[in-house]
Design brief:
197 residues; Glutaredoxin; five-stranded mixed beta sheet; 4 helices; 23% helix; disordered N terminus
Length: 197
């Protein structure tokens, strides 16, 4: 199932340049919900499970009538034992990664975190973004309540080189990967290198 694209009924189209698009994370002022694909590609229900969560969030967005919420399906971020994983990013707040998200938990996350700004701590896994950059906020309202990804026993020790775009790039849009620097080596090989190199 492709990403949610229904600007006519309240859900923001996440194609680049789309009318009403929420800017990328650096300048984001709205709310972004990321449903991370299940990392177990061999499990027959993995994609179905991810798609059903996307539909739950899509329905909640439409029901809310909010126009500042972006819904994305993104690549897995690891920790298969805690999947399905969902991240919520709100302006001027640490992103929160939720674990073992069911349809009921998705509705709770939407009502409590997305709409009311209150993190349901019982299934919050970590705060922050899983990237190669080790930037940490100076102060967070979630300090002491939800561990930062760099303090998490699974995410903390990792140094992401090959998977630095996990959880950020959209697996359904090559432009999403290209904008994060993917395929630069291929471009260099095609444009600058000889056959022998």
């Amino acid at each position: 199932m492709p990403k949610t694209k229904a600007p006519q009924d309240g859900v923001k189209d996440s194609e680049p340049g789309a009318k009403g698009e929420i800017p990328s994370r650096g300048g984001m002022k709205g709310i972004r919900i990321k449903v991370h694909l299940n990392g177990c590609w061999v499990e027959p229900r993995a994609e179905e499970q991810t798609d059903s969560l996307v539909e739950v969030f899509r329905d909640e967005i439409l029901r809310s009538g909010r126009g500042d919420i972006l819904l994305e399906k993104t690549v897995p971020i690891g920790l298969r034992s805690m999947e399905p994983l969902v991240s919520v990013e709100r302006f001027r707040q640490d992103p929160v990664i939720y674990k073992e998200v069911s349809a009921d938990r998705a509705r709770t996350i939407f009502r409590e975190h997305v709409l009311a700004g209150k993190v349901p701590f019982s299934f919050a896994l970590a705060r922050g973004v899983v990237t190669k950059e080790k930037a940490r906020p100076i102060h967070s309202d979630l300090e002491g309540k939800v561990s930062h990804v760099f303090d998490h026993p699974f995410f903390g020790p990792q140094e992401n080189r090959l998977l630095r775009n996990r959880g950020i790039a959209d697996p359904d849009r090559i432009e999403s990967f290209v904008s994060r620097g993917a395929y630069q080596a291929l471009a260099k090989a095609l444009r600058e290198m000889t056959r022998d190199e």
